[in-house]
Amino acid sequence: MKTINDFNFKDKKALVRVDFNVPQDDQLKITDNTRISAVKPTIEKILSDGGSVILMTHLGRPKGEVKDEFSLKHIVNEVSEVLGHKVKFVEESIGEKAKEAAADLQPGEILLLENLRFHSEEEKGDEAFAERLSELGDAYVNDAFGTAHRAHASTAVIANYFESTKFFGLLMANELKAIDKVLKSGEKPVTAILGGSKVSTKITIIENILPAVDNLIIGGGMAFTFIKALGGKIGNSLVEEDKLPLALEILGKAKEHNVKVYLPSDTVIAESFSNDADIKDVDIYQIPEGWMGMDAGPKSREQFNDVLLNSRTILWNGPIGVFEMSNFSAGTVALGESIAEATKLGAFSLVGGGDSVAFVKQFGYDHKVSYVSTGGGAMLESLEGLELPGIAAINK
């Protein structure tokens, strides 16, 4: 893996693709700066070598149009604050002003280019656009794992113009190492927890990870498709009727790979999809008509805890209950506690995927696990065994 540690950036201008697609409030103030602080080690390394940094990113979905609300001028001050360096800003990503600002950049300085997606060529992976971007720097660094699954001009095509000076940033390298630890080099037993609402979105992940894991915990809404396939009564719970045969097929494949599958044994049910609904705890195979499963019950939490405390490598993707509603968050909280405890005991734990990441941040578990992935779609595609365009571009 070619990382920035393999190169000295003295007197070099590094074009660094970052993912500063950060959430903002109505006043365009950043509400979560995790993605900015995550690239700080990469930027520090380049600057300490005596190089300068030109940051490239997108923000939002301006769809090729210049729109003030998506301008990076609104985030430049916070980027400066988080990185601990004054960041210069130019209201272009290509063009004379961008060229001039890049040419004037001195060692130790940082320049932020305007939103790449103000140009429709970015998402189209346009060669000419990528070439014009490449002219601004001497080396290319991809540290945007969150966009590595996109074959865009700045994430994949641009690397063609830097044959020997293209590198992974430190964040990207850490993301790849974390995934490798789960899929290839992790200490056994390896346990994967897959939650969320639908089996259909996780099929390829399950198929790809079965050879690598010892235990598979299936929770959340997708568990009911498995329970129904096994003959259970699931009331009004979420189910993908057309995926019942597939659920049985997955269980069969798990058996072939000697993977132990753990489904919830009990569930917290409600009469309606509401935090104020009447609730009770029942056997997951005996949900009454008119009721729906909303969270893993106490017995399930205990069983999952036992599995996790005996694991050495843990992957968590997807909540196991409707944690956004306080009455149905106990199962996911208990899971977070179990993973935190296992991590404390020396297990390696990787959390990834939008909802799981939202949960660990909201409930304060982000510092109690080994690694929280910054890339939702990119991480999922990696777990599916796909080679991401942004990674292939550096490796070739």
Task: Provide a descriptive summary of the structure in words.
- The model has no long low-confidence stretch (mean pLDDT 95).
- The N and C termini lie close together (11 Å).
- The longest helix is centred in the middle third of the chain and has 16 residues, at 170-185.
- The chain is an alpha/beta fold and 396 residues long.
- The chain has a six-stranded parallel beta sheet, with helices on both faces. Strands 10-8-7-15-16-17 form a six-stranded parallel beta sheet, with helices on both faces.
- Helix 9 (223-229) crosses helix 10 (244-256) and helix 11 (298-309) runs parallel beside helix 12.
- The protein has helices at 34-37, 40-49, 76-83, 96-104, 120-124, 127-134, 170-185, 203-209, 223-229, 244-256, 298-309, 330-344, 354-362, 376-383, 389-395; strands at residues 13-17, 52-56, 87-90, 110-113, 139-142, 166-168, 190-194, 215-218, 233-234, 260-262, 266-270, 279-283, 286-287, 292-296, 313-317, 348-351, 371-372.
- It is elongated, with a radius of gyration of 23 Å.
Give a quick precis of the structure.
With 396 residues, the chain is of the alpha/beta class. The protein is built from 15 helices and 17 strands. Strand 11 (266-270) and strand 12 form a beta hairpin.
Content-based structural category: alpha/beta
Strand content: 15-25%
Helix fraction? 25-40%
- Average pLDDT, to the nearest integer? 95
For the structure shown, list the relevant keywords.
single chain; 396 residues; alpha/beta; 6-stranded parallel β-sheet; 17 strands; elongated
